[in-house]
Amino acid sequence: MLDEKIKELARAQEDYVIKMRRYFHENPEASMKEKNTCEVIKRELDQMGLPYELVGDYGIIGRLETGRPGQTLLLRSDMDALSTQESENNLVGKKACVSKIPGVGHLCGHDGHMAVLLGALKVLTQIKESLCGTIMFCFEQAEEGGWSIDAMLEALSHYHIDHAWALHLYADLDCGKVSVQPGPRMASVGAFDVTVQGEGGHGSRPDLCVDPGACIVQILAQAPALLKARLAPDEMVTFSVGCIQVGTKPNVIENEGRFIGSMRFYDYEAGKKAMDILCRVIEGTAEIHGCTIRYNRKMVFNNATINDPDMSAIAAKAAAKAVGEENLAETEPWMATETFGRYLQKYPGVFAFVGIRSRELGSGAAHHNPQFDMDERALENAVECTVFFAAELLGKN
Predict the structure, then answer these.
(1) Residue 162 and residue 33: Cα distance in Å, rounded?
(2) Which residues of 171-203 are buried (b: 16+ CB within 10 A; e: fewer)?
(3) What digits encode the pLDDT tens for the residues 191-220?
(4) Alpha-carbon 140 to chain mean position
(5) 60, 124, 158, 202: which has the fewest Cβ within 10 Å?
(6) What is the mean pLDDT of residues 178-190?
(7) What is the C-alpha to C-alpha distance for residues 191 and 298, in angstroms, rounded to an integer?
(8) 3-class DSSP state for residue 193?
(9) What is the dihedral of CA 313, 315, 318, 324, to 10 degrees?
(10) For the whole model, what pTM was predicted?
């Protein structure tokens, strides 16, 4: 009877969840600027009668008490949009809604994550008499840069929490499919920002200069090959450079240059080893060129998102009730990075992928792409997965 009620209540919230997703999508706010987003979420929580507190400027933690002793489950959503101009079109045509804020767009799915959590809370408040324990929930600001995760975890440390759940609306999975498999789901990250100092001059006399640009070229040519040669096959680490800055004129050798990039990995020790290799390449190449280097940033984070096997088994039961066992999918780990990995280091839980791809509707462009879009039918799937997971953990025996 509870399963049928959850289905019915989730369907009843579909229009609300789509409306909220479209509002957030049309009114995006970048990391650390989620003021209006926070106010809207607070308004919705007030209408549900749920108590909450602010974390930092715009993060939110709240509680839903069942009134009966039991475990505590944390449900989490991110809030921030990207500082990227959105396209009006997806892969086949016009989108159902588009950002109204120039240069800012929800191009990763966080608009849907907030709407899904609000919808799930509406359902959970209506079935709390069938549950035991406590449901904590949080809306985390600035997830994209990881700028608020420490404050959120510090605030949550004042509560007893047994398990955690979050999901990502996922462009590489068809709408109707859900993945909750155990093990690594998203990667840790190593970040580097390096300035190479040389001695500038005129391009007609490079012999009188120490060219930082030539040094950077050699560093970036050698690093991938040495990483491949020094890391074991099972120590998978990606290496990418997203920014290179060296001068603006064709006949001037600048005094300094800079490059910024990242590495992704699931094994923290492999990530540390890769960073050590990269630093040896940087320092050795700089010495050969007569340059000096300065690390503006050099960090290796231990935040891979790894699903607990026992919790994944419970999540599989929940997801099967939502979308059918035949629609449980296995996906390759995603090499992007998620702050939810930090939660899972403290609280055994699950990070689910809920498919949003529809070739007919044109959704399926990569995350962080201006054409990113979602099949909104996935939102109800996500609400049901969330509520069924809570019911599996907290349901009365």
Answers:
(1) 31
(2) bebbbbbbbbbbebbbbbbbbbbbbbebebbee
(3) 999 999 999 999 999 999 999 999 999 999
(4) 11
(5) 158
(6) 97
(7) 6
(8) strand
(9) -80
(10) 0.93
